[in-house]
Amino acid sequence: MSSQSNRVVIFDTTLRDGEQSPGASMNLEEKCRIAALLEEMGVDVIEAGFPIASNGDFEAVNAVAKQSREAIVAGLARATKADIDRAAEALAPAARKRIHTFISTSPLHMKYKLQMEPEAVLQAVKDSVAYARSKVDDVEWSAEDGSRTEHDFLCRCVEAAIAAGATTINIPDTVGYAVPDEYAALIAMLIERVPNADKAIFSVHCHNDLGLAVANSLAAVNAGARQVECTINGLGERAGNAAMEEIVMALRTRPDRMPYETGIDTTYITRASKLVSTVTGFVVQPNKAIVGKNAFAHESGIHQDGMLKNAQTYEIMTPESVGLNKSTLVLGKHSGRHAFRDKVKALGYDLGDNRLNDAFKRFKDLADVKKEVFDEDIVALIDDQLIRARDRIKVVDLAVVCGTKGPQTATLTLEIDGDSKTTTAEGDGPVDATFKAIKQLCGATPRLQLYQVHAVTQGTDAQAEVTVRLEENGKTVNGQGADTDTLVASAKAYVTALNKLLVKREKTAPGDMGA
Ligand SMILES: CC(=O)SCCNC(=O)CCNC(=O)[C@H](O)C(C)(C)COP(=O)(O)OP(=O)(O)OC[C@H]1O[C@@H](n2cnc3c(N)ncnc32)[C@H](O)[C@@H]1OP(=O)(O)O
Ligand SMILES: CC(C)C(=O)C(=O)O
Ligand SMILES: [Mg+2]
């Protein structure tokens, strides 16, 4: 495959560079699960680890090598015989294997880290690649800190690596220092100047220290690179590596600007992201491209309206293309009537315009006090409204004084058959005071059989749903009330139950309000 081909090799290093994220260690079984999924989704090369790093890493590379069939399994090795031997041993069972050997080529790394003269590094390139080639046919050579390497020296190293048998040449932007046009020019320069460049695939490996890993990788592909090294969720050393899902979806979404193909079945992306996140404990930020919780979610009314009319108004990829069922229209304070009507219908209600408008107003009031309005909230809100529509008694206003000082008092205003009535009652706690105030105003004396509160959803801003069961003359009724204020929900529940009792009384003694 040359820089003329339009096929881009996807080299996943989640299990190696991804695991170098502090705190992202994975055990053997987890690595095997991730590798199996990567292979299933069509990753070309799986870098399974750095075999000399530890026995655990060796075992993991070895296990992935045993299980993989189609994907090439790669193991990392420094420019030493011991590293290469260990990598070759770990990779031995693989159907398709690659030794990935590297050494730094930048003046800074050579002088301070390796403490080697450039000529010694060049010799190490030749020796390490040739030695790796004596073990396997597929050898990748990386110029660590390649983007900060002096051009003439980099050309000499690349030429030497290809001459020694490297079939892939990787030019990492190890510290995420490059910017897109500069990085693209570097790759183009190498392809142009290195005499045997056509004998290898050029690869890129970008870190995200400036948030440019994906942009740099794509710019390099346009300049002739045909392998991209990346990780699921952009996991990796420091700010991470280029995110595979972003690379693949960018290529898929913009073939007009980037006419290249990968072998990835993109419908696996969401599954792979979730697996890596679960295994590593690295939560994906909600606004992360492609795989964030909000990547296909819309809350604002204008966008939701557009989405309902034609999803392409606000989505450049389909959720199905990344393995999600559908986009979500999140109902919140920014939502509009179109989305609300759609949701109400989906929840099985057929409300006329007036009721819908009324419900929408109550939904907006709720959204003002609650971060997110869930389906259950809307069901509670509409049920509450439907139950209350024919009520003779309605809760208008409630103010409760409670706390450690006592006495607990409730000042309540009810509308009874169209008349507004207010009273204040003391009680043994705020709920008792509220119920006493209701009884005073209605002159009712039913027996309270059950009082139950549960949160409709989670969080301190959740709506409380209260159930009250009242008994009078052998007749039992239940009343429900929902509100973000538990006491208001309690008052509504009690009043709902009372209204039901009134209906029952009407049937036996029409016109009677209470005792
Ligand atoms: C950019 C990258 O991502 S590179 C990969 C980084 N990943 C890792 O380092 C994770 C795994 N690493 C490890 O477990 C350990 O560092 C090991 C096993 C590889 C080496 O451990 P140690 O022998 O204790 O050495 P240590 O890590 O302290 O130092 C690294 C040594 O390797 C040398 N070295 C670094 N890169 C290379 C290279 N590509 N080729 C040859 N030598 C190298 C350093 O100069 C240093 O040598 P020195 O001991 O002579 O000074
Ligand atoms: C080992 C190399 C490829 C690397 O991870 C880097 O330079 O970032
Ligand atoms: Mg790296």
From TrEMBL:
Superkingdom, taxonomy of origin: Bacteria
Function: Catalyzes the condensation of the acetyl group of acetyl-CoA with 3-methyl-2-oxobutanoate (2-ketoisovalerate) to form 3-carboxy-3-hydroxy-4-methylpentanoate (2-isopropylmalate).
Stretches for region Regulatory domain: 394-515
Keywords of the record: Amino-acid biosynthesis, Branched-chain amino acid biosynthesis, Cytoplasm, Leucine biosynthesis, Manganese, Metal-binding, Transferase
Pyruvate carboxyltransferase domain: residues covered: 8-270
GO biological process, one term: L-leucine biosynthetic process
Enzyme class: transferase
GO molecular function, one term: acetyl-CoA C-acetyltransferase activity
Organism whose genome encodes this protein: Caenispirillum bisanense
Leader sequence segment: none
Protein name according to UniProt: 2-isopropylmalate synthase
Family in the record: Belongs to the alpha-IPM synthase/homocitrate synthase family. LeuA type 1 subfamily.
Record has Amino-acid biosynthesis as a keyword: yes
Cofactor(s) this protein requires: Mn(2+)
Annotated catalysed reactions: 3-methyl-2-oxobutanoate + acetyl-CoA + H2O = (2S)-2-isopropylmalate + CoA + H(+)
InterPro entries, A to Z: 2-IPM_HCS-like, 2-isopropylmalate_synth_dimer, AIPM/Hcit_synth_CS, Aldolase_TIM, LeuA/HCS_post-cat, LeuA_allosteric_dom_sf, LeuA_bact_synth, PYR_CT
EC number of the protein: 2.3.3.13
Pathway named in the protein's UniProt entry: Amino-acid biosynthesis; L-leucine biosynthesis; L-leucine from 3-methyl-2-oxobutanoate: step 1/4
Binding site for Mn(2+): 17, 205, 207, 241
A GO cellular-component term linked to this record: cytosol
Complex and partners: Homodimer.
